Amino acid sequence: MIGKWLTQIFGSQNERELKKLQPIVEAINALEPDMQSLSDDGLKGQTAKLKQRLAGGETLDDILPEAFATVREASVRALGMRHYDVQLIGGMVLHGGKIAEMKTGEGKTLVATLPAYLNALTERGVHVITVNDYLARRDTEWMGKLYTFLGLTVGTIQHGLDDRQRKESYGADITYGTNNEFGFDYLRDNMKFDSQSLVQRDLHFAIVDEVDSILVDEARTPLIISGPAEKSTQLYYQVNGIIPKLKAEADYKIDEKARSATLTEEGVAHAETLLSVENLYDPGNIELLHHTNQALKAHTLFKRDVDYIVKDGEVIIVDEFTGRLMPGRRYSEGLHQALEAKESVKIENENQTLATITFQNYFRMYDKLSGMTGTADTEAAEFKKIYNLSVMVIPTNKPMVRKDFPDVIYKTRREKFNAAIEEITELHKKGQPVLVGTVSIDISEQLAKQLKKHGVPHEVLNAKNHEKEAEIISMAGQKGAVTISTNMAGRGTDIVLGEGVTELGGLHILGTERHESRRIDNQLRGRSGRQGDPGSSRFYLALEDDLLRIFGGERITGIMERLGMEEGEPIEHNLISRAIENAQSKVEGHNFDIRKHLLEYDDVMNQQREVIYKQRRDLLTGVDLKSTIEDIMMESAEQIATQFADERDLPEDWDWPAISDAVFQQFSFRMESLDEDTLDGLNADGLAEEIFDQAQKLYEEKVALLGEADFRQLERVVMLQTVDNLWKDHLLSMDHLKEGIGLRGYAQQNPLLVYKKEGFDMFQETIDRIKSETLNILFRIQLAEPDHIEDLQKPKEQKLIFSGGGDAPAAKKPVKRESEKVGRNDPCPCGSGKKYKKCCGR
């Protein structure tokens, strides 16, 4: 109560922050006549003038009013669009490294041009992140006219570009692209063997469009580059055959809330009989048990045309938030293979992680991060906690007049859909356009069949025909249009009302189910009522809906029974609406915990990744390794001395044959015997010096033999390859550690703390092995010709698998994209020149 009272007197924090920006808006507006008076060349000349001011010591904040005024006038001339005052405010919020929440249709794409231009003047590059390739292309072409008018360069990062094209796009002043492409390029750069082939510059400033989708929804799945491992696929088919023979409840139990399926004791015994094994839990059957559990999950928890579709003989994941297909992404730990066996399509090999990062840790590497969306306020706490991003709600240019009707709740799904179809039919007859939101492809297609029976013409927008997305959405506001859409709802594309539609009430949004997240529901509503247009929205619900059934619990059912319900009779009640919001809040909290949990574990990996990637970058960019190698040599000599030089014994009594063996094992030479004078009073430090001196002498001879420059290049190549091989092994070990870490909870241990400690110990071992193996190779390697160093430096060509998840065993074959399968008679991807079947395909 006191909080509300203070807000009434002083205004909310959001209002106070907006007031602070008003004088800057007035300063920009005051400059407009001056900008209008400039010729085109004069306006273009502003870019050089503003850069000069920056070079003279002024800050970006100092030049902001003039830069924004320049962009506004250039936009009028190049695009025929003038920034509203609220768009100037949005631009300032983005420049300040915050999230601007702006309603749909308020022109977020145009808003981004203001901070993008201003920050591009530093010549360090600006990245504008979009949710799909179509928007990245569209915005590059559309807003690119404005940037080029002002003398800036603009690039796009798209799927299928080669390294040269990527480097060129990243070298532009402003670069558009999707979060996946930017993230994967970062990982790929840290797998390169040559500094010239690095494509990304340092991460300076990012503007994330649809920031909630990218930094929240997609942040539950890390980016992973992986390679296939050789493993028999017969096991998947064998296990798949037994699952239909198991009975629900008797043989297995399902927990929909936790998305898990587990065998009962009877189920284990039944499975053992079907698989002809004595004990499924025998250590020798661990792999079989794992496959059985994954097959059970595939059959009971994953539904075709909801969680995935089958297209051209491939199982393709459907994004649960957007309804989009995610080709190339695969479920981890053999689950995807279990789904392939279930659907009787070709089973692809499991993958081993080669490089991975979460979106949280990728985007936190930018010097400055900002974002914009129509719906961020519900996740404001998460943005602040994870990314240190504040959310500011920007007022609309014109008042919002959309009517949001209360939810209508029915007892069964059948009644709900009958009522929804009745309303769609009535509105279609009236001529009012309707956008129908569904939570899955399956429901969108069922609804389409029902509308066809009722003779209602309509368009369906889901992952199966997303290629027509822009075309379908652009017509959704026309008179009499009925558009059925999954959650993507043409996000990023405005629905413009056709002639006469305003008088009919504008676009009506009809939701057929509440989503787990309130934000997704708000996004659907936000398709209507843009820029002061009329519009309306209503959600149709049923007690049988997943959200109400799983998370609503007995509370909602009890309320419904007390209120009394008859066949086909809907109920609208504030108690129900509140209970539904509580259910959504529970799910949102659960999903936040998942993302937080993923980040906590990736933070451990992130510290290790930063060490390895810095080491790789130093190696690529020509840091002199001579002193580094000498330090490693000294360290190894000290380890040998510490192990064998017991200072309680006389030096002549030390185990010299064992010392000699240890030196030979590490440095590949036998120690010269030490004279009596040297032995007299020798301690561990002295022995280490002796080993180091002899090793250094031999090493210098090797350097002289090959030549200083060539040998330094050899050091670089050897160390890079050693780092990569052992880092890959370490990632696999960390995957295995994470898989089993949950069991530590049964021993009253905190799994995360155990993961941190054991992960740190494993990383230290990996660093020690990198040093030891690098020395081993350098002391043993023999090159007949200096030219061979170049051959060593050329890594085998790899076509990598890019996914949003995957823990799998070691890769032994060249890695290829799932969409680029290599035939037996095709040239081998490793670059050997042989046919695949006679090289890596054997």
User: How many helix segments?
Assistant: 31
The Rg value, from CA coordinates, equals 32 Å
For the biggest β-sheet, the strand order reads: 3-4-2-5-13-1-14
Mean pLDDT: 83
Name the CATH class of the largest domain: Alpha Beta
Bin the helical content. 40-55%
* CATH architecture type of the largest domain: 3-Layer(aba) Sandwich
Shape: globular
The largest sheet is: 7 strands, parallel
Low-pLDDT runs: 805-824, 826-833
Report how far apart the termini are.
74 Å
Strand content: 5-15%
CATH homologous superfamily identity of the largest domain: P-loop containing nucleotide triphosphate hydrolases
Number of domains: 4
What is the CATH topology descriptor of the largest domain? Rossmann fold
How many runs of DSSP E, i.e. beta strands? 22
The chain-level structural class is: alpha/beta
Write a short abstract of this structure.
The chain is an alpha/beta fold and 842 residues long. It has 4 domains: 2-223 and 361-393, 3-Layer(aba) Sandwich (Rossmann fold), CATH 3.40.50.300; 232-348, Alpha-Beta Complex (Pre-protein croslinking domain of SecA); 403-572, Rossmann fold (3-Layer(aba) Sandwich), CATH 3.40.50.300; 626-785, Orthogonal Bundle (Helical scaffold and wing domains of SecA).
Write up what this structure looks like.
The protein is of the alpha/beta class and 842 residues long. The chain has four domains: 2-223 and 361-393, P-loop containing nucleotide triphosphate hydrolases (Rossmann fold), CATH 3.40.50; 232-348, Pre-protein croslinking domain of SecA; 403-572, P-loop containing nucleotide triphosphate hydrolases (Rossmann fold); 626-785, Helical scaffold and wing domains of SecA. 51% of the residues lie in helices and 11% in strands. The chain contains 31 helices and 22 strands. It has a seven-stranded parallel beta sheet. Strands 15, 16, 17, 18, 19, 20 and 21 form a seven-stranded parallel beta sheet that branches. It has a three-stranded antiparallel beta sheet with strand order 12-6-22. Strand 18 (459-461), helix 20 (469-474) and strand 19 form a beta-alpha-beta unit. Helix 24 (574-620) runs parallel beside helix 30 and helix 28 (684-706) crosses helix 29 (708-741). It starts with a helix and ends in a 39-residue tail after the last strand.
